[in-house]
Specification:
The chain is of the alpha+beta class. A 4-stranded mixed sheet has the order 1-3-4-2, sandwiched between helices. Strands 8-12-11-10 form a 4-stranded mixed sheet. Strand 41 and strand 42 form a beta hairpin. Helix 8 runs parallel beside helix 10.
Length: 1394
């Protein structure tokens, strides 16, 4: 189609659009079809020309059908307009009629339902109230009966208390006296025991000193005896030597004959025989003396035991004698008390009142008068208290801090139906959740608790806070250009309820899905609702924004404002392009212009102990729809913040006025206090009367009971006194026997000492005789020896003897000096012994006296303990009686209080019942009027009546206007139905014609689309052909014949064209040089003739390397550039798709490769700057672990060889500076690390070369102590040797571990041992810290002992001068303990008692 045709088509389309109601999209479709019909004047493929022609023809048909369709649509639309007008008039009239009828139906049904419900509710309420009244009356009676019973119980308890007081009036004094006696006696016993201990210690010291002195004396005596013996021996020896010297000198001048020599030898032999006999007698005497000494020692022990028994018997006698005296005193007291009580009983049985009984009766009369006066005072005070308390409770319920009371106040003081409805919905929502817990397994939080609103969103304080926050919200909306939010009481309640839920869950409550939106904010610190409010009450919104944008630093509370997060923080994200509602939802809710009413709640209590919570709830509209009492559609649009604040201020003032008129809690408390005081007086009077009457009634019985108790006490005292006399006699007998036994054993010991002394005297005689005989033998032996010697030998003997004599004289002189010293020492010791003997006598007397006094005081102490126990039991019994009285008293007071409450409630309920009866009568009359109105309305709808009368009822009479409107509309509907039928028939005719035209247009359009699709398909699948899309080899080998290289023809779309669509002609295609090939398209799908040149060359002419500029190429034996990977002359190269040889770094399929500057490719390291890379035999850059030349390396994702420390997937690895990776130790600073064969840093416990080490979470080798769960390990802090074992630094130590001078033991599992351990057959003990114990130590408070080596075994241990014994566990023994079959005694401190 030419330009003129296009313009004409556009003109037609424009005319159609302007003159008809044809849809604009349909016109656009026509225009599009017209625009596609233009062609150029160049002749194209024949198939394309044919297809274009079909499209043009079908397009013309579409335009014609479109014109006809437009005309038919215009006619139909005119007819439809007329029909719609008539139909609308009819429908409007019918709808108005229905609406009027529905209004009347709904209004009457609602009113009848409401009034019937009011009647039913009031009847139910009346029934419930009567049931409650009956129940309350029954409770009053039941509580009164309970009070009577509890009063009787109190009377009994009062009497019991008075009896107990009388019986125990002196008990406390006696108890204090007994305690004082015990205290004094205890102090004296303590003093005496300490004195006795000190005296015994002094005696022990004195006895020890005496023993030491006696030992010393015996030693000195023995030494003196030795010295005397030595003196005798020296004297004898001196005399012998002097005689020998004389004999020797005589021998110089005298010669002995053989007979004389023989005679002397014979005499000496005889004397030696006598000496042997005497020596044997001495040895026999020594044995007898030893036996005698043993007998003396044994008898001494027997005597000590007898003395001990005597002392014990004496102490027992003294103790029992003291008890006998106390028992006699008790008996005398008991006897007197019994006799006095027996006289009182005799008088009472004879009818004679005692003076005490007469006094009791007079006291009873006086108490009864006081009781009557107290009862009257109490009844008056109680009635005043109950009246005031009721008034105060009423004021608390109506005027407390619950926001629900404010809602009710607003509803009661407004005529606005919308406000009333809003508040009713709010109150209903609160009632629905009142007292119910928010589901939580952890916290006790209620949705709403009408009895406790403190710190919750339902308190007036938090409600006022919420209003302040809403001011900030409206300031934000004003800045954003959005209308202000109004407050809905219902949404305020909803927001509070959802806030309670979110305070536990920390998520949106979403309790009203699809109905409301909500913003939630949680903070650990409570912000200030007025933080951004200026002095004039306006909000400084600019500062809030500046803080949010980081231009101003906020205060601590400013930073916690919910709007800082809801508004400006999310607004900034919105401005940066954020669209996700989860991210900017708070901001979108806050500035949503579609939200007109809202609620807000502040929770100033951390219900979960963590967060304060804020909730703002939005309605998605400006109002709620509802029907008022007249049935009219009304809307809740909310109230402004200032209006709500004004109402809140009014309520607070009103509440204050009402509370001011009500009695105060102090006044009520005062009346309660007065009533309590009066009741206390009455109770005391009751108790006193009861107690006094009981005392009188039980007086005789009490006296008799006391007599029985006195009799029992007397019998017990008699028995005790008799028993102790018997025991005293027995103890005296023991003392007499023990004393006689001591005398017997003393006589035995004296006889044994006499025997021993006699034996020693006989031995001394034999020793003296032995010494004299020895001197005689020595003299004779000297004479004999001299007789046998030469003169020279005699002279030598004389010189030797003289020297011996001089030596003996010197020794005698020394002996005399030593003897003198020993005599002095003996005198000193004798004096000391005499003094110590006197001291021990004195101390023994003192001990005996102290023990006697101590026994007496212990007896007094025991008696005091018995009395204290008796008195304390009596007081405990009294305390129980008093507790029973207090319990009964409290029960009566509680019951009286509960009875007063029940009476007050019953009285209030009676008044309420009267009010309910009056309300029910009025409601029944109103319901009858509504029933009559419904009856008239039903008649009007049925056409049976036309009048709706007056009912003197504002609500029912208001409905009349709608009834009249309904009657008028009914009369108009009939004529409108005829007009609608006529218009409908005309519209049906025009619609049929339009549908026929539309079918014709759709058919034409479908045919056009088919033709256009075929043309578009051809154009899409057939491109153009040019010399650039024809492929012919550049070089062809010379053959001497015609060469016809292959030709590939493609179109511009890259489609290979079938050879049947073109012809090929070759020219100059035999000889070397340039040749041509001509390609001619057949014209059906493609057109044109194209010529391409190629070279005819020799095989050797073009094969091999070719350099073009700085680039290298390689041609094969066909003269073609090679591509891809090739091995040339033994070297590998890579050529890209253009045949260009690659060098240095290059990519293949996204991976890096490397070739040398010569292009050669081989496996090699490549350095780039200070970095190293590795490529394989194909030149490909490697990553990850690689083993090169037997060495492991790691190359990261960029191929970079790693060295030193590096990370893989968050873990540390190490490679040497050469990049080599192996298992090795690595030192960094003072720390050691270990990496495995992959270079990965190890942590935790590791075994390296058979040795165990520990590495912390940072890989650092641990040294010293380390806690593994609850067990200790030790790792060597340096190289150390212990008992032949060597531990290198960081190695886990096992076996013995010395640290300083302390020893520990590490088991083979590596853990430090504690407690008893047997190591190499030796037992040791290690405390909780693992320290090996030595010397004395404690286990569970008991002493144990280990040697300095730590070894533990059964053994004797000496400490100071004391000996101890420990068992096989090292435990110090006490008491009797068998060692080597013998019983040994150890005191409580473990000291061995010899």
């Amino acid at each position: 189609m030419n330009t003129k045709t296009i313009k004409a088509t556009l003109a037609v389309a424009t005319a159609i659009s302007a003159a008809t109601s044809l849809p604009i999209n349909l016109v656009q479709q026509v225009q599009a079809k017209e625009d596609t019909s233009g062609v150029n004047d160049v002749k194209g493929p024949t198939k394309k020309i044919e297809l274009q022609k079909q499209v043009d023809e079908k397009n013309t048909e579409v335009v014609a059908a479109s014109t006809a369709l437009s005309a038919a649509e215009s006619t139909r639309d005119d007819s439809k307009t007329k029909y719609d007008a008539v139909s609308k008039s009819y429908t409007d009239t019918v709808n108005k009629s229905v609406e009027a009828g529905d209004y009347v139906d709904n209004a009457l049904v609602a009113e009848i339902t409401a009034r019937a419900k009011d009647v039913a509710d009031l009847q139910q309420k009346l029934s419930d109230q009567k049931s409650q009244k009956e129940a309350l009356d029954a409770q009053v009676q039941e509580k009164q009966a309970q009070l009577d019973a509890e009063q009787a119980r109190l009377d009994e308890a009062t009497k019991a208390l008075e009896d107990s007081k009388e019986q125990n009036k002196d008990t406390l004094t006696k108890l204090e006296e007994a305690k004082k006696t015990k205290e004094d006696s205890s102090a004296l016993v303590e003093t005496l025991e300490k004195q006795l201990e000190e005296t015994k210690e002094a005696l022990s010291i004195a006895e020890s000193n005496l023993k030491d002195a006696q030992t010393s004396l015996e030693g000195h005596k023995a030494e003196l005896a030795e010295l005397l013996k030595e003196k005798d021996a020296l004297t004898e020896k001196l005399e012998s030597n002097q005689d020998k010297l004389a004999e020797l000198k005589d021998s110089l001048s005298k010669e002995y004959t053989d007979e004389e020599i023989t005679q002397m030898e014979s005499e000496i032999a005889s004397l030696n025989e006598e000496m042997a006999s005497i020596t044997a007698s001495i040895e026999a005497q020594d044995k007898q003396i030893a036996d005698a000494e043993a007998n003396v020692e044994t008898q001494t022990k027997v005597l000590d035991e007898a003395n001990a028994e005597f002392e014990k018997a004496t102490a027992e006698l003294a103790s029992i004698t003291d008890k006998v005296g106390n028992a006699k005193d008790n008996y005398d007291i008991a006897e007197k008390n019994y006799n006095d009580l027996q006289k009182q009983v005799n008088d009472l049985e004879a009818g004679v009142d005692t003076a005490e009984l007469t006094k009791l009766k007079g006291e009873l009369a006086e108490l009864q008068e006081k009781q009557d006066a107290a009862r009257k005072d109490y009844n008056l005070a109680e009635s005043k208290y109950f009246a005031a308390e009721k008034a105060l409770q009423d004021s608390y319920l109506k005027y407390n801090d619950n926001v629900a009371n404010f809602f009710q106040y607003v509803s009661d003081n407004t005529t606005d139906e919308a406000v009333k409805k809003d508040i009713r919905w709010a109150m209903n929502e609160l009632k629905k959740y009142d007292g119910k817990n928010v589901p939580s397994g952890k916290f006790d939080v209620k949705y709403y608790d009408s009895n406790n609103v403190d710190g919750t969103p339902y308190s007036l304080t938090q409600f006022a806070e919420a209003l302040n926050y809403l001011k900030t919200a409206n300031a934000i909306r004003a800045k954003e250009g959005v209308k202000e939010l109004k407050i809905s009481y219902y949404l305020m309640a909803v927001s509070a309820i959802q806030n309670q839920v979110s305070s536990i869950t920390h998520y949106h409550a979403n309790m009203y899905p699809g109905e409301f939106f909500e913003n939630l904010y949680l903070t650990s610190k409570m912000p200030d609702s007025k933080e951004f409010q200026k002095e004039d009450g306006t909000v400084d919104i600019d500062r809030l924004e500046a803080i949010g944008r980081g231009e101003v630093q906020p205060t601590e509370t400013e930073a916690k404002s919910p709007f800082l997060h809801w508004w400006i923080a999310e607004k900034i994200k919105y401005e940066s392009g954020e669209t996700n509602f989860d991210v900017i939802g708070h901001y979108k809710n806050l500035v949503n212009s579609g939200c007109g009413i809202t609620g807000f709640a502040v929770n100033s209590t951390k219900n979960d102990g963590t967060y304060y919570t804020f909730n703002q709830t939005f309605a998605g509209s400006d109002s709620y729809e509802f029907h008022d009492s007249q049935g009219k559609r009304r809307y809740i649009t909310g109230m402004s913040i200032s209006d709500v604040e004004d109402l809140l201020a009014q309520w607070i003032l009103y509440k204050a006025e009402q509370l001011a008129n009500a009695p105060t809690q102090e006044e009520v408390n005062k009346l309660d206090e007065i009533a309590g005081e009066k009741f206390g007086i009455l109770r005391q009077a009751n108790a006193q009367v009861t107690a006094k009457q009981s005392e009188i009634d039980n007086y005789t019985d009490n006296v008799k009971a006391q007599l029985e108790d006195a009799k029992k006490t007397l019998n017990a005292a008699t028995n005790e006194y008799s028993d102790l006399l018997v025991k005293q006699s027995e103890a005296q007998a023991k003392v007499t026997n023990a004393e006689a036994n001591v005398k017997t054993e003393q006589d035995k010991l004296a006889g044994l000492n006499d025997t021993l002394s006699s034996l020693k005297d006989e031995k001394d005689k034999f020793v003296s005789k032995q010494s004299s005989l020895k001197s005689t033998i020595d003299t004779k032996q000297t004479t004999l020896d001299a007789a046998k010697m030469s003169k020279e030998e005699i002279e030598k003997q004389i010189a030797s003897t003289e020297a011996e004599i001089n030596s003996l004289k010197t020794s005698l002189s020394d002996n005399e000096l030593a003897t003198s010293k020993e005599n002095s020492a003996i005198d000193s010791n004798s004096t000391t012994i005499a003094n110590l003997n006197q001291t021990t006598v004195d101390l023994n007397k003192q001990i005996s006296a102290t023990e006697t006094e101590l026994a007496e005081q212990k007896a007094i102490l025991e008696d005091a303990d018995n009395k204290i126990a008796t008195y304390e039991k009596a007081l405990a019994d009294h305390a129980k009686v008093e507790a029973d009285y207090n319990e009964a008293k409290q029960t009566v007071e509680d019951t009286q209080y509960q009875l007063g409450i029940l009476k007050g409630e019953a009285s209030s309920l009676a008044t309420e019942i009267e009010q309910t009866i009056a309300s029910e009568t009025t409601a029944a009359a109103n319901n009858e009027k509504a029933q009559l109105a419904q009856k008239q309305w039903n008649a009007i709808k049925a056409g049976e009546a036309t009048e709706y009368g007056q009912y003197d009822d504002t609500t029912l009479d208001t409905i009349k206007a709608k009834v009249d409107e309904y009657t008028s509309l009914k009369s108009q509907i009939a004529s409108l139905e005829t007009d609608v039928a006529t218009a409908k028939a005309d519209l049906d005719e025009k619609e049929a014609k339009y549908q026929a035209s539309l079918l014709a247009y759709n058919t034409a359009e479908a045919e056009y689309n088919t033709a256009k699709s075929a043309l578009d398909t051809f154009i899409a699948t057939h491109g153009s052909v040019s010399t650039d899309t024809i492929i012919v080899a550049e070089n062809v080998l010379y053959t001497g014949e015609e060469v016809t290289p292959d030709v590939v023809v493609k179109d511009s779309l890259g489609t290979t064209i079938d050879p049947s669509e073109y012809t090929i002609v070759y020219t100059n295609n035999v000889e070397l040089g340039k040749a041509t090939v001509t390609i001619t398209m057949n014209g059906e799908n493609y057109v044109g003739t194209f010529t391409k040149e190629f070279n005819i060359v020799k095989a050797s002419q073009y094969e091999g390397w070719r350099k073009v500029g700085n680039d290298w190429y390689y041609y094969d034996n066909h003269g073609l550039k090679v591509k891809g990977s090739h091995v040339i002359d033994g070297a590998k190269y890579y050529f890209n798709n253009d045949g260009l040889m690659q060098k240095n770094w290059f990519k293949i399929d996204g991976s890096w490769y490397y070739a040398a500057s010569s292009g050669a490719i081989q496996a090699q390291w490549v350095q780039s700057g200070s970095n190293w890379y590795y490529v394989n035999a194909d030149g490909k850059m490697m990553t990850g672990y690689q083993t090169v030349g037997g060495v492991k390396y790691y190359l990261n994702g960029d191929g970079l060889m790693q060295k030193n420390w590096f990370k893989i997937n968050g873990s540390w690895y190490y490679a040497a500076s050469s990049g080599a990776i192996q298992a090795q130790w690595v030192q960094s600073g003072s720390n050691w690390y270990y990496v495995d064969a992959d270079g990965k840093m190890v942590t935790g416990k590791q075994t390296v070369n058979g040795l165990k080490y520990l590495f912390d979470a940072n890989g650092i080798m641990k040294k010293g102590w380390s806690l593994d769960k609850d067990k200790w390990e030790f790792y060597s802090q340096n190289t150390m040797k212990v008992y032949g074992k060597t531990f290198v630094e960081g190695q886990q130590v096992t076996g013995w571990l010395p640290i300083g001078n302390r020893w520990y033991y590490i088991a083979e599992d590596g853990y430090m041992v504690t407690g008893y351990q047997t190591i190499s057959g030796v037992k040791y003990y290690f405390d909780e810290s693992g320290l090996m114990q030595t010397g004395w130590f404690k286990i569970n408070g008991v002493y144990h002992y280990a040697a300095s080596s730590g070894a533990i075994k059964a053994q004797w241990v000496k400490s100071g001068s004391n000996w101890y014994y420990v068992d096989a566990e090292g435990k110090m023994v006490t008491g009797d303990y068998v060692i080597d079959g013998k019983v040994n005694h150890f005191d409580t401190n473990g000291v061995w008692i010899k």
